[in-house]
């Protein structure tokens, strides 16, 4: 036995009238709902402020530590810089290789790393380059 399906022709407006039960489409939000929304009043707001690093020199100086907020005299540790290595290489090239260690002993050829005298955290660096 063969089933026959009735085919209908679209009505004058071009809409097929056999579909009596159309699926309900969700209604999109109105312009007001889409553009105006309320921010929750109890939201946690985090404000990040960046501080400029304190100006430090080749000698210990008094600074306000950005970590502990205490004004104290900095502690200095010297570390070799590009200038230190270049001076040592220049001495070797010129033939004074026995004096190549001198730039590593001179603080004027090294970076001065400043640390807080209170909390011992890094504060800034003075580069002689």
Automatic annotation (TrEMBL):
SMART domains: LITAF (SM00714). InterPro entries: LITAF, LITAF_fam. Pfam families: zf-LITAF-like. Residues 43-128 form the LITAF domain. Its main location: membrane. The keyword Glycoprotein does not apply. Coiled coil: none annotated. Keywords: Membrane, Metal-binding, Zinc. GO terms for cellular component: late endosome membrane; lysosomal membrane. It is a peripheral membrane protein. It is found in: Endosome membrane; Late endosome membrane; Lysosome membrane. GO terms for molecular function: zinc ion binding. Belongs to the CDIP1/LITAF family. This is LITAF domain-containing protein. The lineage of its organism: Eukaryota, Metazoa, Ecdysozoa, Arthropoda, Hexapoda.
């Amino acid at each position: 036995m063969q089933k026959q399906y009735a085919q209908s022709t679209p009505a004058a407006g071009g809409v097929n009238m056999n579909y009596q039960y159309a699926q309900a489409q969700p209604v999109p939000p109105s312009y007001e709902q889409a553009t105006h929304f309320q921010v929750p009043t109890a939201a946690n707001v985090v404000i990040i402020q960046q501080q400029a690093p304190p100006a430090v020199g080749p000698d210990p100086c008094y600074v306000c530590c950005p970590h502990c907020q205490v004004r104290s005299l900095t502690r200095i540790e010297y570390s070799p810089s590009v200038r230190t290595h270049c001076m040592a290489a220049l001495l070797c090239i010129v033939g004074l290789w026995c004096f190549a260690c001198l730039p590593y002993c001179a603080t004027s050829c090294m970076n001065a790393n400043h640390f807080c005298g209170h909390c011992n955290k890094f504060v800034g660096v003075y580069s002689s380059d």
